[in-house]
What we know:
single chain, two-stranded antiparallel ribbon, 4 helices, alpha+beta
Amino acid sequence: MDTKIKIKLGEDDFWFFGPGVSELLDNIDKCGSVAAASLNMGLSYSKAWKMIRDSEKGFGFALVERSTGGKGGGKAFLTDKGRKINQMFKLLERATMEFCNNRLKELEAEYWKTDGGTVEK
Length: 121
């Protein structure tokens, strides 16, 4: 058995960063544009920009640097802070999952039989 935890960052009921934004930033980094990243994720372009704006509002700084479109279209790339926030979030996700899965194994050993999962205590 494993656990699945969804981590969101925010305050005062304004949740502005989570797995979806992290994936979007990864895709922007890979694709070089918000349009291509949103298409790759099956998101509307406007939804992708809303996620970026909400995250930037929450953190108080830019996560994505943009250049306006033209003949070749607009470009986008992660700012240094955007890249660091995304890396920090992924580390937090991994550490949380590792902790939860380890704790679950401890609880299983303490409370469950291995032959069918019936509660002993």
